[in-house]
Design brief:
Helices cover about 25% and strands about 35% of the residues. The protein starts with a helix and ends with a helix. The protein has about 190 residues and is α+β, with helices and mostly antiparallel strands. The strands form four sheets. A four-stranded antiparallel β-sheet has the order 11-12-7-13, with helices on one face.
Amino acid sequence: MSRIGKKPIPVPTNVEVNIEGRRITVKGQKGTLSLEHRPEVSVEWDQKERLIYVRPVGGGKKARRVKAFWGLYRALVNNMVVGVSQGFRKRLYIEGKGYSARVQKNELVLELGYCHPVRFSLEEGIQVQVKGNWIEITGADKQKVGQLAANIYRSRPPNVYTGKGVRYEGQEIKLKPGKVLAAGKGM
């Protein structure tokens, strides 16, 4: 049994849920998200209790696969409900002399010490704010917010010797000692 899949998903009063066949549409103040689920699971909407139930369909030889999809789609539907009601946020910090970020039209432009600026086009439903060296990414779709943050991080990960680069909020970088200090000759 899937521990995650067994839990019902509570739906806030300001969120509308519509299920037509295998397509689930969730609408809230932050936007509208939709998802088509696989035939291995069924999604049921209880309007009186305002709960969504995700249940497995079938079993037998494919029981392990069915259980995997059961937990996966419960988590995806829950992320949709949370996204349209509260939204998701990721914050990144740029550290380094001359490193900067700015938003131009529908694009995030980063100066990260390369000979060219690094550009990211912003998808619909994703907002990016730059305040000093902080980049804040917000949106209703958890996958899009996380993927954009990962792409920005990957463009210049933190250097373990100098600490320069892009890092997530709360991420600590353990700096390694240089060769001179490690050998004890620099003192």
